[in-house]
Amino acid sequence: MGADDAEGRLVRPFTLTGGRTRPGRGEFTLITTVTAVDPQPAGAVRMQPEHGRILRLCASPVAVVELAARLDLPVSVVVILLSDLLEAGRISVHPPHPVTRATPSLQLLLKVREGLDRL
After folding, report:
1. Closest by alpha carbon to 2, among 110, 21, 10, 37?
2. Contact 82/54 with Cβ under 8 angstroms?
3. What is the DSSP string of the chain?
4. Per-residue pLDDT tens over the stretch 9-23
5. Alpha-carbon gap, residue 5 to 75, rounded angstroms
6. pTM of the prediction?
């Protein structure tokens, strides 16, 4: 399904996923970062063209939501394809860093309030 291929847009998402509606592994969120494994594992099974496109886009770390946007595919479909690649050992997954819930200082809150008052 090329970007310039209007007929390729007729391919239904369920055909890309083999009819699957859920990923084999649920490790993906919208902001999970994915990177292609370099070098690719020996004897890796040949995958669909979309898998190859994902691997090319993941040469450097990229978020799941960004992959979906670049591929012009629903996030749910991209997650299923990423799950295939993860099970094959062709990508590494980096979950988002947890945000600490530190209480902001009173000084910071006063500066924010002053800034909002100026608007």
Report:
1. 10
2. yes
3. --TT-TGGGGS-HHHHTTT--S-SS----TT-EEEE-SSPPTTPPP--HHHHHHHHHTTS-EEHHHHHHHHT--HHHHHHHHHHHHHTT-EEEEPPPPPP-PPPPHHHHHHHHHHHHH-
4. 555 666 666 666 666
5. 21
6. 0.66
